[in-house]
Fold these 4 entries.
Entry 1:
Amino acid sequence: MLNGKKIIVVLPAYKAAMTMERTYNEIPFDIVDDVVLVDDNSPDNTVDVARSIGIKHIIKHEVNKGYGGNQKTCYAKAVELGADIVIMLHPDYQYTPKLIHALASVIAYEVYPVAFGSRILGKGALKGGMPLYKYIANRALTLFENVLIGQKLSEYHTGYRAFSSDVIHSINFSHNSDDFVFDNEMISQIFMNGYEIGEVTCPTKYFEEASSINFSRSVQYGLGVLRVSLIHRLHKWGVIKHKLYSKPVSE
C-alpha cells in the first residue's frame, strides 16, 4: 500500500513468455499489493511462466479478445480485488516497472486521479528505438487529439497507465473497442468525466521480443484515433450523444 491505498498491477499479456519474468522481477512489491495477469489466448507458454514466477491471479481467455478486450478483463478483476489504484503495465518489458512508485504516488497523494508514463517527455522514445515513422505519427495524432479534445497531453499512445478506482468506476468501458483504440476511447471518457491526467517521463525499449503492431494495423489505429477525437468534440458540442459517455450500469 501507499498512503493507505491498495495498489494492483495488471498485466495484459499476449505472447509474453520471453519477457514476463524480467518485468515481474522489477515490480516494487514494497508498495504493490497484488498482480493480475490476463493472457489473451497466447500460443506460447505465457501462463506457465506466470505460474512459475508466483503470480496468483491469472486469467486466460479461451479465445483472443484483442488488446482492448484484455484490458476490460484486467480492470474488472482489479476492481473485484478491491484496488484503490490500478496500474497497467505491459509485460513485454518495454516500460520499466521502476516507475510504478512515481505513477502510484501521483494518485495516492491526490495530485492527479490518473497518471501516464510518457515516452515523449524528454528523449525516451527515439533514444529507446521507436521507429521514426511511429514517432512522427505519434506527434501528429497527439496534436490532433489535443486540439479536438482541448487538452495538452504530451502523448495519448503510451501503454503505461495508472488510475484511481474512482476513475475506473465512473467509466463505462464495456462500450469501448476490443482493439488498440480502446486506450484512446478511455482517455476521451476520462476527460469527458472532468478528470485530469498527470504525466511522468518514461524511457522505453524497442527490441525483438517487445510487442509492436505492424504498419497496416498502425494505419487502422490512427484512423480510429481520429474518429474518437471527432466523436469527443461532437459530443461535447451536443451535436451527438455517443454511448461511450453513458454512465456505467451500476450507477
Entry 2:
Amino acid sequence: MKTRLTFAFLFPAMVLFTGCNVQVNRSVHLGDGRTVRADQVTVNGQITVGSDCEVRGNLTTVNGNIRVGRNSKIRSIRTVNGTVRLQDDVKIYGKLQSVNGPVSCDPGVRIRGDIATVNGNIDLRQTMVGRNLVTTHGRITLAGKSEVDGNILIKRDQGSHRIRPLSIEITEGSVVRGDIRVADRRSVVTVSLSRGGQVQGVIHNATVVEE
C-alpha cells in the first residue's frame, strides 16, 4: 500500500518536469563519459551511470537501484525502493534521499547536502558530507576518515510504538562535527567510537561505547 501511494504522488510530479527522461518498466543506462542536462527518472527500473559522467539533473527511481561510476558528477539522487551505490570520487551537489534502500559510498565521494533515509542503512568510507545524516530506522557506519560537517539525526517514527534498537559506528578517524540527536526516546541507540572516531558536538539520548 505504501508503495502504491508513493507512486501515485510521485509519478504525476515526475512527468511535469521539463526536459526530463522518464521511463516506466525500463532501465536507464549512461555510458562512460556522458554529459546530460535532463533529469533521469524511472519507475520499475534501474539507473546506471558510468564513470566520468556529468548529470546536470536529478536521478530519481521508484522500485529501482541507482549505481554511479567513478568520478561522475550528479545534481541530486532520490529513490523509494532501491539501493544507492556511489563508487570512488563521485560528487553530489545536492541531497541524496532514499526511503527503503541502503546507501553506500566508496572512498573519495563528496556530497554537499544531506544523506537521508527512512529504513535504509548508511555506509560511508572516506566520504565527506556537507550537511546532515538523517534516518529513522537505518544503521549508520562511518569509516576511513569520513567527515560529516553537520549532525546525525535519528527521527521519530510516528507510526510505531515499538522499542527500536539502532547502531551508529564511527571508526578509523571519522568525524562528526555536529551533534548526534535522537528525537524518539523509544529508540535504543548505541554510538560506538573506535580507532580515533569522534563526535565534536553533543550526543543526545544515546548510549556511547568507546573502544
Entry 3:
Amino acid sequence: MSSILKGVTLSSGQKADIRIEGDEIVEIGVISKAGIDCSGLVALAGFVDPHTHLRQPGFEASETVMSGTRAAASGGYVAITAMANTFPVADSPEVVEHIMSLGLLSKYAFVQPIGAVTKSLDGKELSQIQAMATSAAQVSVFSDDGVCVFDTDLMRQALLEVKDFGGVIAQHAQDPTMTIGSQMNDGALALEMGLTGWPMLAEESVIQRDAELALETGSKLHVCHVTTAGGVEIIRWAKKQGANITAEVTPHHLLLNQELARGYDPVYKVNPPLRTSEDAAALLAGIVDGTIDMLGTDHAPHSSEKKDCEWENAAFGMIGLESAASVLHQVLIQSGAGDWPLFERLMSTNPAKMLGLKDFGSLAIGSKANITLFDPSSSLPGDAPSASKSSNSPYAPLTLSGRVRHTMHQGYFTLFNQKLEEIHD
C-alpha cells in the first residue's frame, strides 16, 4: 500500500507531507503528488500504552484482546500492553504466548504481554520470569498490577532476576496493611461520606522502598499510576540519585479529583483512588519537569454488573484508551503547560522505549508507519460510543478538548476520520 498524508503539522511545528510505502515512512517534506488532506491535524508517532487491562483470558464479559485493540485504535494507539491479572494469571510462558497469539489475530494494534512478577499474583514466590523472557512472547516487563509486590526480599529478588536481561519490574505501589477495606482517598471527604480512607502514605512508602531497592540493585523499576505529590517528589529524588526508574500517570488522575466521589457514583471508584486537585497539579508539574515519563491509561474495563451497584460493592477501575489523548491535550497543551514534543514523548516515545518496542515511538524517514493524527481544534464528547465491551468511562458528563482523527498501524489505517476500518491481510 502507498499513502501520502498532505499538510500535517509535525510535533516540531513544521508543516509537511508524509509518504508511506508498505509499512514504512519513506519521505517527509513537500511532496508534489496528491494525497489525503490532513491540514489542521498534528502528526505524531503512534501512541503506545504501557498499562492496559485486556481481561482475556478469563474475563471476556468485560473485554477481549480484539475489542481492546479496537478501542486502542479508536484512541490513536498502535501498541498496547496486556496486564497479567487474567485467569489464568499470565505467570508462565504458555499463558503469555496465548495472549500474544490473540494479539496477532488483531490488526488494530500490537499487543505486548506483561508477565506476572509472582505466581498467581500471590506475592509469595517469583513466577517463571526467565522463561517468559525467552519465550516467543519475549516478555521484558513484569508486574503484579492490581496488587503490590509487598515483601521486600521478594521485590529485591525480582529486580535482580530481570537485571541480567535488561527487564523491568513495574510496581503497583500499595501497602496492603494500610488499605484494608479502603474505598477512596483518605481525608475529611472520606470521613464525611462514611467511606474507609486510602492513605497517601500507603503509596508513597512503597515508592520510597522500591526506589531504594532500584538504587541498591541497579535494576530497572517502573512505577505504575503515581497519584500523589509526595510520590512525585520521591521519584524526583530517586532520579537525582541515579536510580534507573521511570514513572507513569493516568489521564484520570491528571484531570479528575476526589470531589467527584461525592455522588457515590462507582464510575469514579478506581485503584489507586482519585486524589486532591493539589495532587493533580503536582502530577502535571512532574510531567513538565521530566520526573514523570509517560501516560499510562490503566484501561480497566468492567461489565455493568460489576460497576452498576453500590459504591462499596463495585469494582475498582475505569476505561480510558479512547479518551486519553484528549485528556492529555486538555491538561497539557490547551492549558499552555507543555508542548507537542512533550506530548509525543509521553504518549509514544518514552513508553515504547520502556517496553523495548523498537518499531514504535518514532516518526521519521525509515521508521515503521505507526502514526496518530490528532485534531486539536475539535472535541470529544465524553459519552461518545466506545469500541470497548465496557462502558465504565468517568468522562461521560464532559466534553474533552481535541480528538484523534486517524490512526495508522504498520501502514494501514485502523481508524480513518473517526471510523474504525476493517483490516484484511
Entry 4:
Amino acid sequence: MIVRHRINRILADVEAAIPPDGKRDYFRLHRNRFAMLLAAIPLDAGRRVLEIGVNPGLFTQALVRAGYQVCGTDLFPAHRAELWHRLGVDVRRWNIDTEPPPYSPESFDLIIFSEVIEHLSNPPIDALATIRDLLVPGGYLLISTPNQFYLKSRLRVLADVLLMRPFERDDEFQRWAQLKAEERYYTHSRLYSMRQLCWMLDQAGLVVRRRVYGDPWERVGLEWSRLLRYPHRWLAKALLWGVTRAIPPARSMLLVVAQRPRTCRQARNA
C-alpha cells in the first residue's frame, strides 16, 4: 500500500506534466479516484502491471511514476501513441468483449480494471475469468466501478418520478441511439451493487480480499477556493459528501481488491 504523502507527490507530478491542451479537467475530476486506487494496491503486489483501458493515460503516468512496469490495453491505443512511447509503456488493442487477450497467461502481478466493467456489452463473468488467467497465481485485480446505490443518482431518479420527467433526456437518448460499432463503449451498459460485483468475481474464480465504498466524486468541487465563487453549489456538495460519509453503501464508487488463488485449496478455503 503506497503511503498518502507519496501518493500526493506522484499525483502532483502528473498534474504538473499535463500540457496546455491535455486533460486537466479530466484529472481534476478523477484525481481522488486515482489516489484511492494507488492506496489500495496491496503491499505484496509485484511490479508487473496491466492497466485495462488506458486512455487518456493520466493514471498510466501515475503508475509509471510509482515505479511499476506498466503495460496497457485499449480500444483505441493509437490515440496517444506518442505518450505510450515516451512512458515506455506497451499498449495493445483489446476489445475484451469480443477478442482474445493480447498478452500471454500469467504475465502480470497486478491488473487495474477501473471504470471499465460498466461499459461492457456482454455479461462480465467471462471477461473477469480471462483477466484472472492473465494474473500470476497470487496476483491481484483492482476493480472500480460506479455504485448502483449512489445517493445522488437515487435522488435524481426520485425527482424524475415525482416530476414526471423521463429518466433520460431526449438529447441523451438520441446520442445513444446513433452510436455505431465500438462507439457504444462510451456509454454505460449497466451499474452494479457491491454484492453483484463480488459475486461475479467469485464466479470468475477470484477471491475478494478487500471491498471499499469510495467517495471520489462527492469530493470534486469541495476545494476551499470554490466556496466563495459557488457558495450554494459548494454547500450542496458538502451536504451530499457528509451524508455519504455517514452511510458508506450510498457512496459513489465501488472498489474491490481480488486475488487469483495460488492453489485450488486456497480457492476452496477462501
